[in-house]
Structure formats: C-alpha cells, structure tokens
Amino acid sequence: MKHITVNDYQSRPVVVSHSTSVYDAICTMFLEDVGTLFVVDAQTTLVGVLSRKDLLRASLGKQTLETIPVSIIMTRMPNITVCKKEDLIIDVANKLIDKQIDGLPIVAEVDRGSGFEVVGRITKTNITALLVDLANDEII
Ligand code: ADP
C-alpha cells in the first residue's frame, strides 16, 4: 500500500471551459457520468473544480442556467487540492478525508511555470477499487 501511486489507479479527467454555462456543465456531468468536472481556461490551465453540489446549489437560484458561466460558481485556484502521478495513493486518501472531498485532479506543471495542466482524475471510487484488489490479494 505504501508504494502504490496515483499512476496505478486513476481515471481520465473530464474538463469544461471556464466560459461553459452551468446548464451545459450539468449536461456534461450526466453524459460523461462523473461526479466532478475540472474547469480550464483558454490555455487549458486548471482554474476551477465543479462538484455535483456546486451545480445543484446554482440550480436553486432564480437565474437562467444557460446564461451563468461556471466560473461564477466553481471552487477556484489557488483553493484546489491537486496531486501528481507519482504521489502515493495513501497520501491522496489522506487529502480526501482531510478536505472532505470526493476526488482530486492529477496535474502536471505547465512549462511556462504558471499553473497546472490536468492529466487525470483520482476519486474515492479508484481508492475503493484498490481496496478490492488488496482484499483479493491481487497486490503484494
Ligand atoms: P459534493 O459537493 O457533490 O459533495 P465534493 O465533496 O467533492 O462533492 O465537493 C465539496 C466542495 O469541495 C465543492 O464546493 C467542490 O467544488 C469542492 N472541491 C471538490 N474537489 C475539490 C478539490 N480537489 N480541491 C478543492 N475543492 C474541491
């Protein structure tokens, strides 16, 4: 367990642009069957995170969801907890418990030195899959 990395248990990231409407983000979340969307700017740099409850909360308002950009309601940088491919899964699990969130974007540093590119996603589901593999002795 202490040497299993994010790279061994990860999912593909689903990203939307910061100018996407809340309505379209809800559609993307359903179509892609994920619980968290990552928001990127025009340079594909990570700028935000959208959870199911962020979108539900926005839906409670009186505004038309087609006209509100996700950038208004997302959790934004620098408040996003991230991880890298080479990080240990146990460290990710600790972050998820500590921050009470469902998943983390897996990021790589952008060459320009400012910001992160999203290269993957790791969630409680991936960690549950690891638990099952451990129970089945598929990992020594
Ligand atoms: P839900 O809100 O559907 O229960 P989460 O528990 O993952 O899902 O999200 C709780 C809050 O934390 C949301 O406002 C969401 O934007 C934010 N959040 C989710 N993932 C992250 C992350 N990796 N870093 C920082 N904030 C996050």
TrEMBL record:
Domain CBS residues, every copy: 9-67, 74-138
Record CDD domains: CBS_pair_CcpN (cd04617)
Domain of life of the source: Bacteria
The keyword Secreted is annotated on this UniProt entry: no
One Pfam entry name: CBS
UniProt-listed SMART domains: CBS
UniProt keyword annotations, A-Z: CBS domain, Repeat
InterPro entries for the chain: CBS_dom (IPR000644), CBS_dom_sf (IPR046342), CBS_domain-containing (IPR051462)
Coiled-coil intervals, chain numbering: none
Protein name: CBS domain protein
Organism: Halalkalibacter akibai (strain ATCC 43226 / DSM 21942 / CIP 109018 / JCM 9157 / 1139) (Bacillus akibai)
Source species taxonomy: Bacteria, Bacillati, Bacillota, Bacilli, Bacillales
